[in-house]
Amino acid sequence: MSTQTFLLPDVGEGLTEAEIVAWRVSPGDSVAVNDVLVEIETAKSLVELPSPFAGTVGELLVPEGETVNVGAAIITIASATDATGPATVGQSEHGEPEPAPEAGEGAVLVGYGSGGHVQSRRRKTAAPAAQRVAASVGVIAKPPIRKLARDLGVELAAVSPSGPAGEVTRDDVVRHASQASVFRNIETPEWGDVREERIPVPAPQRPTRPAAPTRPGGAVGTVAPATPAPDAEGREETIAVKGVRKATSSAMVQSAYSAPHVSVWTDVDATRTMELVKRLKASPDFADVKVSPLLIMARAVIWAVRRTPMVNAAWVDAEGGAEIRVRRYVNLGIAAATPRGLLVPNIKDAQDLSMRDLARALEKLTLTAREGRTTPADQQGGTITITNIGVFGMDAGTPIINPGEAGIVAMGTIRQKPWVVDGEVRPRFVTTVSGSFDHRVIDGDGMSRFIADVASILEEPALLLD
Q1: What residues does the Lipoyl-binding domain cover (predicted)?
Q2: 383 closest CA partner among 195, 251, 250, 252
Q3: Of 94, 117, 261, 439, which one is the catalytic site residue?
Q4: Is the peptide bond before 204 cis (omega within 30 degrees of 0)?
Q5: Does residue 116 sit within a domain?
Q6: Domain holding 286: CATH number?
Q7: Coil, strand or helix: which one is 418?
Q8: Is omega for the bond preceding 207 within 30 degrees of 0, making it cis?
């Protein structure tokens, strides 16, 4: 039994040194070719290094946390070539074990070097989790591609390789991720008993912009036009800023100047949402209630909040310092254009409502707003808002967050457009889902996941049954 020494390789990034972040094996462990040995951190990224040898781990030559140069010895592996026969690295398409390369027979680290490569075959059927991990590390892919797949939640063994040597490329991973469900392998938590969670924000607090100046007319940040001279031709009109318009302008200026807004958006094939709406309208259970795509959008937002609760949070300036308040319930705000101006009443505890009850609540909210009967209590305590700009024929927007919330979602108009389905251009009902978020509370990756989750439900509303 010979002993092989694994030297820290150049992973193709112009690497000169790397830190040993975490060993994935221990002395005495058995490893196959391409089993992950260690995670290293370069100047650019975290990289998993697979084994070029099959055998038994001997000595870990570098402790975790230490930085070493390229070419330094980091681990020894005793080759598995004893009397019991050669070690195996996987299975053939027919289920027979495949022998590991002997030392000196061209065993190479996947993604590095030349002079041979490890053959890999995609599994034809689903396998247990442990087997899928082993299959993943047996795929031919460079470390940067492996990291991309890990970041996108893509199982490399399930990706069809297009590289000239049978390797998985960056385009292969991105294409597979775009075709897969964005919430695959992500657990959706249940609603808990705790309604709010407070997260302290450590000092120093982030600076905020100075308050907007008070301008003539009394409304913060709103310019009230000077009263014009009498104009016999009626070329100008003066409108006093008061009531709902004054409250709205003050709230929007407060939000825009205090919360750093960022917006994201994505186009969505909403054909199946339109089909579901049609079926619900024909259902006797929904005969006496209005059904529209907004109902599916509302259900999608409530579902997505469970998976990204920070979008349902709020930034609070408290006496002991700022804190983030995470709400474990959804008071769903619906922006409504009324003769009085823009109102944002909300449906209390919307997460507890069935599809039918939510449809009734949306209908009641809309009718009450149009009739001017929305009370102040109906507009207080909202946690996240939907604005349906599609009713005005708009595709997308960058809405301003309602004060006291961290996110707002906009639903664009749904119209037929050419869309590529299975390689063919077909007419589909397409919409755009956009959203703005408070960057003090939630980062771009969280809001992007949230919007992607909402889009996934609009693409396939049957997933709400999971």
Answers
A1: 3-78
A2: 195
A3: 439
A4: yes
A5: yes
A6: 3.30.559.10
A7: strand
A8: no
